[in-house]
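note to self — DONT lose this again. spent like an hour looking for the file last time. sequence + predicted structure for the chain T wanted, 123 res
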Amino acid sequence: MKNYTITVNGNVYNVTVEEGTTAGVVQNPAPAAAPAAPAAPAAAPKAAGGAAGSVKIEAGAAGKVFKIEANVGQAVKKGDPVVIVEAMKMEIPVVAPQDGTVASVDVAVGDMVEAGALLATLN
């Protein structure tokens, strides 16, 4: 675990991050904000008609899909970014948990996602 102090728009946050993952635990949470818009329907379209793979890539935090880094059929290595999620005005890369080939991308840029939502799959 590593501890970081991050300043966002003048607010200071103490964050603990597990090494080898993108999940972080906010120790000093921001003041409550207005409720988020409802999440996109559960059946998001799959990109390029790819079949779902056996390895799931899920969102570590709720936010908005900012960028798709990998395409269906693209080979990725463990730790390569697949999707970038914007949460709390930060861009958070969601990375491949292991080497593989992207089988499906289950979100689109601009989609709102909840923590644990399926973003993509690998074979």
